[in-house]
Amino acid sequence: MGRDRVDAVELPPTTGGHRVKAWTTLVEPRELLPRLGDEGLVVIDASADLGSPGAARARFLQAHVPGARHADLDHDLSDHRLRGQGRHPWPAAGDFEGRLAEWGIAPEHQVVVYDAADGALAAARLWWMLHVLGHQRVAVLDGGWNAWRAESLPVASGEARPRERIDHPPGRAFDDSRLFDAGDVQAHLDRGGMLVDARAAERFRGEVEPLDRVAGHVPGAVNRPYALNLHQGRFKPAGTLRDEFRSLLGDTPPGDVVVMCGSGVTACHHLLAMAHAGLHGAGLFTGSWSGWIEDPSRPVATGD
Q1: Are 286 and 180 in contact (CB under 8 A)?
Q2: Mean pLDDT throughout 24-48?
Q3: Class of domain 176-292 as given by CATH
Q4: Residue tagged active-site, from 42, 126, 200, 261
Q5: Which of 241, 253, 226 is nearest to 125 (CA)?
Q6: For residue 124, pLDDT beyond 80
Q7: Residues 252/76, Cβ–Cβ less than 8 Å
Q8: Where does the Rhodanese domain start and stop, copy by copy (predicted)?
Q9: Is 261 tagged catalytic?
Q10: CATH homologous superfamily of domain 8-150?
């Protein structure tokens, strides 16, 4: 399929004074290859395995994009000390900044994230976390690890060479206007906003539920499975995604859209697809379905 690109932009020079193309949504494997080893580039493997803790890291140590370091969905991108906020509670900005410091990521660095599931677990989540923290130079590797291997590109094993820890200036915070809890979502629906659920159709309808104790969906939500953003494991062209989302949204502007999934992970795939399509401003229900059902008094819908 042809690709019309809206995700490579010119940003101000890095601290080294070099003006390079910044990737802000997606980057192709062969675009990334010649930049490997640049001091201004940080590659993160965010592969996850919901059913087997530690398995994704073990696979990372066996093989990964050269220079990449590993981000763990549960330990680095969630805060399980929090209760009532779903299976992957959104961490505090300060804690996330600490992780970025450990990984040697400063605001001027280009970050490229990938996983082994076409961006759905949990590369798009990390992309979104950086995005709402105000980090501009961050993109997801289109096709992820599978695309990298399919093109027979170089791989490495073991731990990456440590980067120098970078302490960030205080004051950066997540853009809370783009992050919604259950109460915010209900108020959003009450005032006519749209809620888009990225789970598979059978989970949305409540026919199956492999992960959460209650099946169904938030009343008033509409369904678009995240897999519809892809064609043969790659994101569809920007124009195609733009047409598909506009058909779904109708007259609703992107800024009046909140996306959700099971636990606030795969929903970020929609946020990435919309950004790639030039549709900016949507928000995330961070707790998503697993957070919604934490309170048994909240209503549950089934069917279409």
Answers
A1: yes
A2: 96
A3: alpha beta
A4: 261
A5: 226
A6: yes
A7: no
A8: 37-157, 189-301
A9: yes
A10: Rhodanese-like domain (3.40.250.10)
If pLDDT is split at 50, 70 and 90, which confidence band does 93 have?
A: very high
Q: What is the pLDDT of residue 1?
A: 33
Q: What is the mean pLDDT of residues 259-277?
A: 98
Q: What is the DSSP string of the chain?
A: ------SEEE----TTS---EEESSEE-HHHHGGGTT-TTEEEEE----TTSTTHHHHHHHHSBSTT-EE--TTTTS--TT--SS-SSPPPPHHHHHHHHHHHT--TTSEEEEE-SSTTTTTHHHHHHHHHHTT--SEEEETTHHHHHHHTT---B-SPPPPPPP-PPPTT----GGGEE-HHHHHHHHHTT-EEEE-S-HHHHTTS--SSSSS-SB-TT-EE--GGGGEETTEEPPHHHHHHHHHHHHTT--GGGEEEE-SSSSTHHHHHHHHHHTT----EEESSHHHHHTTSTTS--B---
Note whether 8-150 and 176-292 share their fold.
Answer: yes
Where is average pLDDT lowest: 54-63, 233-242, 264-273? Answer: 54-63
